[in-house]
Amino acid sequence: MQTLNFTVLSVILIFVAWQDIRYFRIPNLLIFLGVIIGILLNILLPQNFGGIGMLASLAGFGVGLAILLPLYLLRALGAGDIKLMAMIGAFVGPADILMITVYVILAGGVLALAVVLLQGRLSKLIDNFKLMLLMRLAASPITSLPTTDTISRSAGKLPYGVAIAVGTLFYLVANYNIFS
Questions:
Q1: From the DSSP assignment, how many helices (H) and strands (E) are in the chain?
Q2: What is the pLDDT along the chain (180 residues), one digit of tens a residue?
Q3: Which sign, positive or negative, has the C-alpha torsion 40, 56, 167, 77?
Q4: Most buried of the four, 3, 5, 98, 116, by CB within 10 Å?
């Protein structure tokens, strides 16, 4: 990934994380502009300067949109989180968005555990997990699994845009020679 792509994506991700912490929302306008910028950078930049081309950028957008969609359907993530992953995919392409997702899920787990511990709701998290696990073990169809709406009280609200930003930035720094 080229430094220009990394810098632009980093600025957008930092702003998204701040918005999500402050308002628990990711602005659609910011996502839309990020998608346009990501695709344009990948079209206009030559391959030796980090451009991946229009088709790879669009494929990354599609994979980014689809990869966490099951969590949206279970109402575990918001639509803004899914759109943010699609935007990141437009910057990095389909192969990197798959690996970024692994880092995002790990960052989300750490963030969720930190929020639960800071709010003193670990027992509620364990109770909710037991309920979901028991329903699954009872061979309930996937459509009747509990969602965050059907569980009596959530263990806490999580600004997942922060996990997406941290996971993405950690992956990019760890796997590309950004600073050399």
A1: 8, 0
A2: 578 899 999 999 999 999 999 999 999 999 999 999 999 999 999 888 888 999 999 999 999 999 999 999 988 899 999 999 999 999 999 999 999 999 999 999 999 889 888 888 788 878 877 887 887 787 655 555 555 555 455 555 789 999 999 999 999 999 987 766
A3: positive
A4: 5
- Geometric angle at alpha carbon 28, from 22 and 29, rounded to 5°: 100
User: Is the Cα dihedral 69, 74, 80, 84 positive or negative?
Assistant: negative
Q: Print burial letters for 140-171: b (CB count within 10 Å at least 16), e (below 16).
A: eeeeeebeeeeeeeebeebbbbbbbbbbbbeb
> pTM here?
0.83
Single-letter amino acid code for the residue at 117: L
Rounded-to-integer distance, Cα 70 and Cα 106, Å: 17
- Distance between CA atoms of 17 and 28, rounded to whole angstroms? 14
CA distances to 31, 118, 150, 165, 173 from 79, in Å: 11, 26, 19, 16, 26
Q: How many CA atoms lie within 13 A of 122 on its CB side?
A: 5
